[in-house]
Every structure is written in structure tokens, then in C-alpha cells.
Amino acid sequence: TQLLEQSPQFLSIQEGENLTVYCNSSSVFSSLQWYRQEPGEGPVLLVTVVTGGEVKKLKRLTFQFGDARKDSSLHITAAQPGDTGLYLCAGARWTNAGKSTFGDGTTLTVKP
Amino acid sequence: ETGVTQSPTHLIKTRGQQVTLRCSSQSGHNTVSWYQQALGQGPQFIFQYYREEENGRGNFPPRFSGLQFPNYSSELNVNALELDDSALYLCASSLSANTDTQYFGPGTRLTVL
Predict the structure, then answer these.
(1) B25-80: per-residue pLDDT in tens?
(2) CA distance A41 to chain B (A)
(3) Is A44 exposed, middle or buried (0-12, 13-18, 19+ CB in 10 A)?
């Protein structure tokens, strides 16, 4: 069974601070996605990473895929209250495209 | 706005009843995956449909079944509802069964009493 562990489970910070959340597994994935989900809504795709060591930037968000394709991190610079939400990582394997395994997420609260 | 729609938004059922949830995928997408998200947890894969055929299934009992129609919209049916079936049910569409990039709908919140 593939498991994705996300840490921390909860994170509460002040506006302007930087933060990093992690997504770790003992399994290798062909790709890994990061989503942001707000209460009562579906996850919204932020990024897909596919190459070991890959770094992608989306404004103040930086995503990194581990060299061994087993882990990933999301770094947010100068967090804003609008960044508040549940951040989910999801991994897929070559033979199971689109049948993603999700972590349980990191709930981020950014206080003004 | 992902272009994926789900209905109904909310639903309340009692134990033992049956429920049908519906999903309309994004234009041009022929693959739909269904997920169950219990409170405080990440989504869990139920099954995927590709061109009207089931294309993979997660660890869910047979009372969870699905359909995909020629226009690639999809249904999730759950029979003999149990209290633990209470969850947010999400569908996600993708361009094909070979892509990992999925776009989620807003979900249907099912409450079983």
C-alpha cells in the first residue's frame, strides 16, 4: 500500500512569515501533484512535478520533487491570509495514471 | 472554475438506502475518477472510468458502483448505505487515462443518518 505522509498536520502563522510543508513516502511516484482545498469545495490543482529534483515556482509558492521521486515540499514565501486552506499532495504511479494516492493534508491558517 | 460539475451539492440519506451522485466532466476529457473524502482526511480513490469502461478500482466494496455515459459524464451509485459512507464525494476529470493531471469538481456532501 502506498502511503503519503504530510507534515505538519496543522500550521498557524502570521501574515508575512515563510513556511514549508512536506510530503513523504517510501514509494516512488511517476508524478506528484499539489492541491489546495477550501472547506466544502473540491481540491484545486496547483502544480504537477514529474522529474526527480524538479523545482517549480508559482508566484510565492515553490514546489520541489525529491531526487528519488519519493517526497516533495511546498515552500510559501511571505504568506498571506488568502493562502489559508488545506494543502494536499497526491502521487500516481506509471501503471495507475490518474488513480492518485492522497496524503491527509496540511491545514494552513495565515493570520492577518 | 475547473469546468467539472457535480450534483447534488448536498444529500441526506438514511442507513440502508441507495444514492446516485452525478458528475459532468470538463469538455474534451474522456476519463473520470471518483474519490471519497471523509472529514479530516485526504481523498481516497474509489474507481476510474475511461471511455465508458471501469479502468481501475480502489479498496471499496462492490456496493460502490459507477457508470460513464457516451458524453463522458458519470454516475456513482452506492447501495445499502452505512453511517461511515458519510463524506464528500469528489469526481475528477482528466484528458485521458494516461495523464495524472486531474481537475476536481466541487463535490457532493453525503450525510447518512
Answers:
(1) 988 899 999 999 999 899 999 999 999 999 999 999 999 999 999 999 999 999 99
(2) 5
(3) middle
